Amino acid sequence: MNQIFIKNATKKKVLVTFILTQFVYAIMLNITIPKLTKLSGMEIFDMRPAGYTVQYAKDLLSALGETGRSMYLYEQIPLDFIYPILFAISYSLLLAFLLKYLTHPQSKLYLFCWFPVFAGILDYIENFGVVHLLRSYPEVSNTSIILTNLTTIAKSAMTSLYFITLFSVGIGLLIKWLLAKNQQRIDSENTKDNP
């Protein structure tokens, strides 16, 4: 299974997918999400990684109004259906690319490359839940809100685990580089001492 990531983790693929991911994320973060936040005066579901209560969800749906719910459904959600696949691909390839310099191809560390994939899947499930909430308003069931909320929390947890892993791999690479530099210095000094 590691080969899926290793084979595709080239500089070009990592760079292209990362740029595309950040481009879509920037549109959401700077255009669609602020519009919805301004309209409702509340954070939308995606921007609440720790989750939300049933009452919060109902208040948000009400505060958005018909215009806001339509904007959420036809502007934010389409972008948020593109983003998870880009996130899954770009961040799994980024981690695999870095792991190539840290460990061997059979390493179990490559299993962490699945974290962004799982986060992406959870994001899609969350999106379907949000679509259901928007379309069923005002007849929104508490169960639908609770299930969508659990998916939001699970997605956020998986995303956090990924970034902790990415940071740890970055630290590992830095330590490896420092040790290699130190060894080069020692070897250089030994060469000078033993001409």
Q: What would you note in describing this structure?
A:
- The radius of gyration is 22 Å and the shape is elongated.
- It has one domain.
- Helices cover 81% and strands 0% of the residues.
- The longest helix has 52 residues, at 142-193.
- The mean pLDDT is 94.
- It has 5 helices and no strands.
- Helix 3 (54-99) runs antiparallel to helix 4 (114-136) and helix 3 packs parallel to helix 5 (142-193).
- By secondary structure, it is mainly alpha-helical.
- Keywords: Membrane, Transmembrane, Transmembrane helix.
- The chain crosses the membrane at residues 14-33, 81-102, 109-125, 160-179.
Rg, rounded, reads 22 Å
* Main beta-sheet strand count, sense and barrel state: none
Low confidence ranges? none
Q: Element order, helices and strands?
A: HHHHH
Task: For this entry, give a set of tags.
mainly alpha; 5 helices; elongated; 195 residues
Brief digest:
The protein is about 80% helix and about 0% strand.
Give the SSE layout.
Elements: H1 2-8, H2 11-40, H3 54-99, H4 114-136, H5 142-193
Helix pairs in contact: 2-3, 3-4, 3-5, 4-5
